[in-house]
Amino acid sequence: MSTFSLPSRRGLLFGTAAVSAGALLTGCTSNENNDAEDTDARRADAADDAPGKPVTIGFAGPQADHGWLNAINEMATERAGTYSDVTLEATEGSNDTAQQIGQIETLINKKVDVLVVLPADGKALTQVGLKAMDAGIPVVNLDRIFASPQAYRCWIGGDNYGMGLNAGRYIGERLKDKENAKVVELAGLDNLELTRQRTQGFDDALKNYPNIEKVARQAAEFTVESGQAKMAQLLRAVPEFDALWNHDDDQGVGAERAIQQAGRDEFFMVGGAGSKHAMDAIKADDTVLKATVLYPPTMAASAIDLARALGQGKGIGGLAEFEIPASLTLYSAVVTKDNVEQYLPTGFR
Q1: Confidence band (pLDDT; 50, 70, 90) for 300?
Q2: Which of 52, 63, 75, 98 is the most buried (most CB within 10 A)?
């Protein structure tokens, strides 16, 4: 049973999963009345909740060994179940590249109408994405991007650089009037590009606050255990600081344990991803955790919406475009006590 309620389909595509409109979308205009009439007809036929052509969607997701990854699988399955015209062919989630390639090849052989894939490794799975596209099966590439744009029809995912940027801005604004402010960073896996992007965004934001210095950084592994161990190291290394940015709310549970064990509370903490645990703590306002920067798993539900629209040859309702955009980037909102009620329904366990 799901632990969250999904926002409306329109809300997913135009709210949480915000389109980078300036970069992605251009309007179609014409002086011909016939063209205008055709455009109006296409708009009326855009993807909506009304049943349409039956679509079989193949879904190859991750192994649910992390709260966010589990939410990805749940949200995709739950969203597909709300459509009477969608049949979901879901594989058993896997973080093994070879196994996931085999699962996707099985879906290709079953001739599903559309594929939604969150690859264990985008680069390693690029060839199977190309194989699906060559077979005439459009691919919605979810989050971890393939190495070639020819391997997918549409990419939808989070903004890792934006996560770091918005975390840095939030911390910067809170500390802008404090002299010689010190911050520390509890990062994720350093061998992942997403971790490097989050750190880069954070560092770039802090450049706007010359009174703030990042005095320490430690990489964890997106697990509770690693978060606790690495946070304990940070606390021993830095006797006093003003703010902590933690890249991931799952490892943040461990970080909070280390903080409590050390009896430290002179700083505030900003998390990452948007777990229900983090949002509950922010709402209660009784720990050092004061905010979290979203990396919304609702992208999986939106990916199903996009796959259905692709399978039915429709665009997105409310836009002038005839076709589904080539890419959609979600916005990394900062959740605080002031707005946590708005985002609680998307919090994941």
Answers
A1: very high
A2: 75
Give pLDDT tens digits for 78-116. Answer: 999 999 999 999 999 888 999 999 999 999 999 999 999
User: Sign of dihedral through CA atoms 218, 232, 258, 250?
Assistant: positive
- Please name the amino acid found at residue 237: A
Range of the domain at 194: 160-294
Asked whether residue 9 is assigned to any structural domain, the reply reads: no
Distance CA 302, CA 232 (A): 38
d(CA 4, CA 211): 40
Q: At what angle do helices 67-81 and 249-262 cross, to 10 degrees?
A: 140
Give the DSSP H/E element, type plus range, for residue 329.
Answer: strand 327-329
Q: Would you give the distance in Å from CA 101 to the centre of its chain?
A: 22
Residue 226 resides in a domain? yes
d(CA 157, CA 259) in angstroms, rounded, equals: 32
Our count of domains for the chain comes to 2
pTM: 0.84
User: What residue type is 345 in one-letter code?
Assistant: P
